[in-house]
Specification:
about 85% helix; about 0% strand; mainly alpha
Length: about 210
């Protein structure tokens, strides 16, 4: 209760710029929570054993078995392979690239928004600093309460700056983590696509007709 009162007092003392800063902070929290759950769910869906079975089927030239094994998988890498094999009659490599692009688009969702928040947070804090200092200077020499107004303006500037920097720092760390996970997924997709292309070429599967 005491902590909440302190936070409310800081928010009020931070001036009007704290309202847009609050909106940015809420957006950052929502995105971080959503992306964290998304990546946790993705980790639970990865199935290296199934991927090896699909490779084994392709290595023996049994495309139908590979398609059947990968049909209901929720692993993004296996899903990409399934999509590629189902469209191998047109272009296996192209189908794999399209499927991989779809998986990467889902994985990279909201990263641009997080990058914007990292940039916008300190800028809003800087704006609060400017408005707070301006309020302090306009109060000089006005009344006997000028000292309180000056210190209040400086306090507003410092609070806004700290809030903006805090949002940027709190968002930057998970954003970089999500970027690293995205890079890892991209590597796995590219490696799997190359493996499927090589295995398919060995058995002349790229020109095969799709299943009925």
């Amino acid at each position: 209760m005491i902590l909440s009162n302190i936070l409310i007092d800081f928010f009020i003392d931070g001036g009007p710029i704290m309202y847009p800063i609050l909106v940015v902070a809420v957006a950052a929290v929502c995105i971080i929570v959503e992306r964290s759950f998304w990546w946790l769910t993705l980790s639970s869906r990865r199935d290296s054993k199934l991927l090896e079975k699909v490779y084994a089927a392709l290595e023996t030239g049994d495309t139908n078995d590979a398609i059947t094994l990968s049909e209901k998988s929720r692993d993004p890498v296996v899903r990409m392979i399934h999509h590629g094999l189902n469209h191998r009659h047109s272009s296996l490599e192209g189908a794999l690239q399209v499927a991989a692009g779809h998986e990467l688009r889902n994985a990279g969702r909201f990263l641009t928004a997080m990058d914007t928040i990292v940039t916008l947070g300190p800028l809003l804090g800087l704006l609060g600093t400017v408005t707070g200092i301006m309020g302090s200077f306009t109060s000089i020499g006005d009344s006997e309460l000028a000292v309180e107004k000056v210190t209040g303006g400086i306090g507003e500037a410092l609070i806004a700056t700290a809030a903006g920097l805090g949002i940027a720092i709190a968002t930057l760390v998970p954003m970089n983590y999500f970027h690293s996970r995205l890079a890892g997924l991209q590597f796995d997709l590219e490696a799997a696509a190359n493996n499927v292309t090589l295995l398919a070429a060995q058995h002349g599967l790229t020109s095969a007709k799709p299943n009925a």
